[in-house]
Amino acid sequence: MTVALAARWQRLVTVPVVVGACALGVTYLIPPTFTAHTVFLLPQQQQSAAASALAALGPLTGLIGGGALRTPGDQYVALMQSVNVQDSIIDKFDLMRVYDVKYRVHARKELTNNVHFTVGKKDNLIGVDVDDNDPKRAADMANAHVEELHRVTSQFALTEAQQRRAFFEGQMLAAKGRLTQAQIALQGSGFSQSAIKVEPKAAAEEYARLKTGVTAADAKLQAMQKVLMGNTPELLQQQAALATLRAELARVEQRDDSSGRGADSSYVSKYREFKYQETLFDLFARQYELARLDESREGTLIQVVDKATPPELKSRPKRTLVALAAALISGFVMAAWAIVAHMRLTKQIQTL
């Protein structure tokens, strides 16, 4: 083997050098690629001022959306890779012309290949790297991803406080409408001495407490049914708890209905419905104000740590690395060829 390589040492040296030089020359024909880099900080999911107050809701918290986001970094990356954001960037930088493509779907694919994201697991930082032949356009596109993320996130409730604020705002408005209707119905029912004797306030407060519990338990059951199978112990336990609350509520309703007659009974039922709606409205109003307070404390949703600037040096092609790789590969090929040729020649000599 050593004899075979020594006999052809000139080729083993010349060919790799020539191939490496050719590869180096080819790299100068490839347009250089520049990589711009920007970094921003994830929104901080701070301790909520309403955390203790939320416990009073019990099962109703299941409707808020699961509390704080488990993987906020991945969610923000997914937003920046969404069609909404990509199409906006494609139009802003005229990328269909830049990438020389006819269809928008091909421009999205090319943009996806040229944009890379990194999510810090410990420091809550997200990095955006954009490759482009123009260093200024690469920097502008990297910054545009953060700007588009600002725009998109302003349209959605992503943080825990925003989710709670949006949820309680809707619930409070709905409860306010039902409370107004219950109040009008109560005012039109009238009352009498016998209606007062049944102590409607105490009965209504008990009824409101039970019906609120039924509403909360039913809300939690609906939330659990979306993620759990029908025969799981947690789901069966929640169904049993809801059935118990409904049975107790039915018992109170039957007891209250038997305590009055005619207009008295109508007044009691309307009064307890009014108290129920009043309890719900007060509950949602308190939680809405606490959520607004938490949301105001969050400050800026996205904070840019390092703004992208036009890179001064290209990121690829790496000319030296390409030339060395081509020379080494051709060197191994030539060495293998020399050994095979020497073995064939030796075999022919032995045959003769």
Can you describe this structure?
- This protein has 352 residues and is of the alpha+beta class.
- It has two domains: 34-56 and 69-158 and 302-319, FepE-like (Bacterial polysaccharide co-polymerase-like, 2-Layer Sandwich); 160-297, no CATH class.
- The protein contains 14 helices and four strands.
- The chain has helices spanning 2-7, 9-27, 51-54, 72-80, 83-93, 95-98, 104-114, 135-153, 160-189, 193-197, 200-225, 233-257, 263-297, 319-351; strands spanning 34-41, 115-119, 125-132, 303-306.
- A four-stranded antiparallel β-sheet has the order 2-3-1-4.
- Helix 5 (83-93) packs across helix 7 and helix 9 packs antiparallel against helix 13.
- The protein starts with a helix and ends with a helix.
Helix content: 55-70%
Strand share of the residues?
5-15%
- Structural class category: alpha+beta
What is the number of independent domains? 2
Taking all Cα atoms into account, the compactness measure Rg is 36 Å
Amino-to-carboxy terminus distance: 21 Å
The tally of beta strands, per DSSP, is 4
Summed over residues and divided by their number, the pLDDT gives a mean of: 76
The major pleated sheet works out as: 4 strands, antiparallel
Name the quaternary structure: single chain
Task: Produce a short descriptive summary.
67% of the residues lie in helices and 7% in strands. It is an alpha+beta fold.
Question: Can you give keywords for this protein?
Answer:
352 residues, four-stranded antiparallel sheet, Bacterial polysaccharide co-polymerase-like, alpha+beta
Could you outline the blueprint of secondary structure elements for this entry?
Elements: H1 2-7, H2 9-27, E1 34-41, H3 51-54, H4 72-80, H5 83-93, H6 95-98, H7 104-114, E2 115-119, E3 125-132, H8 135-153, H9 160-189, H10 193-197, H11 200-225, H12 233-257, H13 263-297, E4 303-306, H14 319-351
Antiparallel strand pairs: 1-3, 1-4, 2-3
Helix pairs in contact: 2-14, 5-7, 5-8, 9-13, 11-12, 11-13
Organism: Pelomonas aquatica
Protein name: Lipopolysaccharide biosynthesis protein
InterPro entries: Bact_polysacc_biosynth/exp
